[in-house]
Specification:
Layout: E1 4-5, E2 11-12, H1 22-29, E3 39-41, E4 51-53, H2 63-94, H3 102-110
Antiparallel strand pairs: 1-2, 3-4
Protein name: DUF3456 domain-containing protein
Organism: Ceratopteris richardii
Pfam families: DUF3456
């Protein structure tokens, strides 16, 4: 990624591999918290008190409560990301963050918000592709 042109119109500057670039980190993290609106806090059943991927909000009986919890999740995500952004960015850049490890790294390693015996996040398995991280 070289952006400077010299007086002859040739590109100058350090060539940075996309995989370790700032642009890649920004693209990966941009919009992450806005996707948290897809999760809701389970209010009953075996997963009571845990976050899970939601059904469409139109199908939820108490939409106001679901919207409030969804906003709460998005706000929490923003705070968590703000607190851990530098460490997360460094792990992405140096390649130590592997696909499928984001929950563990954010929840346990960086934020220390989860206890090891039980995850507070219950989600459907999401396919992760090597080019995502």
């Amino acid at each position: 990624m070289r952006h400077r042109l010299n007086s002859k119109g040739h590109r100058e500057g350090k060539l940075i591999d996309y995989k370790v670039s700032e642009l890649r980190v920004v693209e990966l993290l941009d919009g992450l918290c806005s996707r948290m609106k897809d999760y809701i806090l389970e209010m009953d059943g075996p997963n009571k008190g845990k976050w899970s991927k939601s059904i469409p909000l139109d199908a939820i009986q108490d939409r106001r409560q679901a919207d409030a919890h969804s906003k709460q999740m998005s706000t929490y995500c923003g705070r968590l990301l703000e607190d851990t952004e530098e460490e997360l960015e460094e792990r992405i850049k140096n390649g130590s963050l592997k696909p499928g490890e984001v929950e563990r790294v954010l929840c346990w390693d960086l934020a220390r918000e989860c206890n090891l015996s039980e995850s507070n996040i219950q989600t459907e398995p999401v396919p992760v592709y090597d080019d995502e991280l």
